[in-house]
Write a structure and sequence with these properties.
19 helices, 2 domains, Alkaline Phosphatase, subunit A
């Protein structure tokens, strides 16, 4: 009896040690990769309870073969979760969050490849091999050479209690540290959001907002939505390279707002706020309305011309909003790793402009300066070649990517100018607005290329916001004279729908002119980002 009990305890102890191998690795590597002591202890405790949960399940099975199989599966699952957790901390210094998962759900295979190419550095690759491959192989070897054949009959009740307690604590206290729960909840929320958007925002008219019908005066307005373009690399904003030669030529005809930020640094959640009534206080807003629906209700003919593929894992949020337009043109059919030039949108724009001179609002969604910069401009725009930019980081990769990005910005400049020239030739009551959904970090403040809210650098948030107005618009809207005095206003583009409505004279009950950058009743508000951080206070801290 005593020998049998001793054997069972030894087997139980061995089983616990084997299942806990990923936990011990987290305890050690987490000291170096999890930046905050509180976060470290929360991650260790949360992962400890998850390990206890898997261990309890394994103990509940009496048959040796089942127990060995469950032990191996437990280690594999825990190892994969550990690798994701540590690699994300390594790259971003924070835990994997719901907002990051939203981006993953909306990403196509090409963008995933771009992401993984930057994500897997030497540490991630080596730790992946160690944690995801070598550890399971080690466990297989261990299970073949040790005995875990105890019956554990008296301990099953205790194991059941451990299972219940662990499950409760993980769900109630450590759910944000648990990747399984975070992923499930995020995907459920994302699926619900997409369903609501398809139900509400894809319709030509919103049932939640009543819009006053405007007169039939012919008008042609254009909203150009850029991609990944930071004003840090724009000549118009003081950049020391000639990236905006075409727009600089007509600089005196433009109003260049110099203190505008995007609400997020990822396209989907940024455009969800920019193009609808959603904002920081009402994200993924129910009973929502888009600028396309407002324009439809006001009597405009609406057109959506896009150089981005309309589908990812699901329909993209911007594509769902685009479905409300009277006519849709999705020009690009290639993945974003292919050569895509925004000039391909211009013939479509010409066709739309030639339509009967009714009230038109045209939305143009550019590929802009999206990743794989070298594929965003033709060879004749390969202007910055061997030049060495005045960059903070001067290694070979940084210099190459900065040159490619600046070439893409220079090409983007020519496309925006072409749009303005075409609208100008119409000689109608018109405006052209250009902004980017977010920016990119190009080794400006740190040794990094790309965008993510975990680093949240200034170039990722600070975007161009430029307005051009025709002579007819200026004559019929006398308050235009005050616009140039507003160009220094600190503004979060999550309120763009109010600025857009102001310019297009679209009136509806929910219109709040204090949120319009063009209004004389504008009230500056806190520009909140991430989890409620004040952007302007963050900038002051970063600049110290």
């Amino acid at each position: 009896m005593e020998n049998s009990l001793a054997t069972n305890i030894k087997s139980l102890f061995r089983l616990a040690l084997v299942v806990s191998i990923p936990f011990f690795i987290l305890v050690i590597l987490g000291l170096f990769k999890i930046p905050n002591t509180l976060n470290y202890f929360k991650e260790v405790i949360g992962f400890g309870f998850l390990t206890l949960l898997f261990f309890s399940v394994t103990v509940l099975f009496s048959k040796t073969k089942n127990r060995q199989f469950l032990c191996l599966i437990s280690v594999i699952v825990l190892s994969v979760l550990l690798f994701i957790k540590l690699s994300f901390y390594h790259n971003y210094n924070v835990k994997l969050s719901a907002s990051a998962l939203f981006v993953i759900f909306e990403t196509d295979t090409t963008e995933s490849a771009d992401f993984l190419a930057n994500y897997f550095d030497s540490f991630v690759t080596i730790s992946g091999i160690l944690i995801v491959i070598i550890i399971p192989l080690l466990v297989i070897y261990i299970l073949k050479h040790i005995k875990i054949s105890g019956q554990f009959k008296l301990l099953k009740l205790i194991a059941l209690v451990f299972f219940i307690v662990s499950s409760f604590l993980i769900y109630k206290r450590f759910n944000s540290e648990n990747l399984i729960i975070t992923s499930y909840q995020s995907y459920s929320e994302y699926s619900s959001l997409i369903k609501d958007l398809k139900t509400d925002l894809a319709k030509p008219l919103s049932s939640f907002v009543t819009v006053e019908k405007s007169d039939d005066t012919p008008e042609t307005h254009i909203v150009i939505i850029g991609e990944s373009t930071s004003n840090w690399h724009m000549q118009l904003y003081g950049y020391d390279r000639p990236t905006n030669p075409k727009l600089t030529e007509i600089k005196d005809q433009l109003i260049i707002f110099d203190s505008v930020i995007s609400p997020h640094v990822h396209t989907i959640i940024s455009l969800d706020k920019i193009l609808t009534l959603s904002d920081f206080n009402s994200p993924n807003k129910k009973n929502n309305t888009s600028i396309v629906q407002l324009a439809n209700a006001a009597g405009y003919d609406t057109y959506w011309i896009s150089n981005q593929r309309p589908v990812g894992l699901h329909e993209r949020i911007s594509s769902i909003i685009a479905n409300a337009a009277k006519e849709k043109y999705f020009v690009a059919t290639e993945n974003s790793d292919e050569v895509i030039y925004d000039e391909s949108l211009l013939p479509v724009l010409d066709t739309v402009l030639k339509k009967a001179p009714k009230k038109k609002i045209i939305f143009m969604h550019l590929i802009g300066t999206h990743g794989r910069f070298v594929k965003r401009y033709p060879e004749k725009f390969n202007y910055f070649k061997t030049d060495k930019p005045n960059a903070k980081f001067k290694h070979e990769k940084a210099l190459q990517l900065i040159n490619e990005y600046d070439n893409a910005v220079r090409y983007n400049d020519s496309v925006v100018r072409e749009v303005i020239d075409r609208v100008k030739s119409q000689q109608t009551n018109s405006f052209v607005l250009y902004f980017s959904d977010h920016g990119d970090e190009l080794y400006d403040t740190m040794d990094l290329v790309g965008h993510n809210e975990y680093w949240a650098t200034r170039p990722m948030y600070e975007i161009p916001f430029i307005a051009w107005f025709s002579g007819a618009y200026k004559q019929s809207n006398t308050y235009f004279k005050t616009f140039s005095s507003y160009k220094n206003r600190a503004y979060n583009l999550e309120d763009f729908i109010y600025s857009f409505s102001d310019l297009a004279n679209i009136r509806f009950k929910e219109l709040d002119s204090t949120k319009s950058i063009f209004s004389n009743t504008f009230i500056r508000k806190q520009r909140l980002i991430k989890e409620g951080e004040d952007y302007d206070k963050r900038v002051k801290l970063l600049d110290k």
